[in-house]
Write a structure and sequence with these properties.
233 residues; Porin; twelve-stranded antiparallel β-barrel; two-stranded antiparallel ribbon; 6% helix
């Protein structure tokens, strides 16, 4: 826990040191279930999250982080995630980006890992490709590709969708399972700025959580309805 807090404090100090040249945004969110790439990191239970973002628009640099409650191995924990990257706008409706992310959990140092990513944004369509040399610190590499899209509906309503595809390296013979997995999420949202409400359905297909080293509790579901309420500033 101390190491997580030191990591978060160090990032905050570095970001606040240059905040005069950056735009900061943040959000606080309550979720009925914390799903990460289809896997529940809250043991199919509610979670709370706090996120912040810094954007240096003139240079293309950005950074930020998130803290989330979690349940790993059936015990309470806190996840700390930090990231930094560079984005370049090619034309008004198209841009590309690249960056790094680092994640660790309080009391669970074995699950800490880093990954690099590259992606693009075309209007509302956003795609990213991630690579982790030791996914969830399990000793094998993993690739994850995702596409996210959203469309305005009537009034303040909108629809959104996500599709992800995960592939792990290393030997999977002990699991007698595939090394591939896909996850999908579709839902509707209501923008009541500064509040935002979303209801979505998420599901996974392919290998189980154990194959990818996810610290999910036994018996967590593959399919779930997720309700979230966020406040942004």
């Amino acid at each position: 826990m101390r190491l997580v807090l030191r990591t978060v404090v160090a990032v905050l100090v570095a970001l606040f040191a240059v905040q005069a040249r950056a735009q900061m945004t943040g959000s606080a969110t309550l979720l009925s279930d914390y799903r990460f790439r289809g896997a529940s990191l809250s043991d199919d239970r509610p979670a709370a999250q706090l996120a912040f973002d810094y954007d240096w628009a003139a240079s293309g640099l950005y950074a930020g982080g998130m803290m989330s409650s979690a349940r790993l191995d059936s015990r309470h924990a806190v996840q700390a995630l930090i990231y930094a990257g560079y984005a370049h706008r090619v034309r008004p409706d198209f841009s590309w980006e690249t960056g790094l992310r680092y994640t660790r959990f309080s009391g669970h140092e074995a699950y800490a890992y880093a990954e690099a990513y590259a992606g693009f944004a075309f209007r509302q369509l956003v795609g990213r490709l991630y690579y982790a040399p030791s996914y969830f610190h399990a000793g094998y590499p993993a690739w994850y590709a995702e596409l996210n899209d959203s469309h305005a509906l009537s009034g303040k309503w909108y629809a959104f969708a996500h599709a992800g595809y995960l592939r792990r390296g290393g030997d999977v013979m002990e699991y007698h399972a595939s090394r591939f997995r896909s996850d999908f999420r579709v839902g509707i949202g209501l923008d009541l700025a500064p509040y935002n409400v979303q209801l979505s359905w998420t599901t996974t297909r392919g290998a189980s959580d154990a194959v990818f080293g996810y610290p999910s509790a036994a018996g967590t579901t593959r399919n779930a309805w997720v309700l979230s309420i966020s406040y942004a500033w």
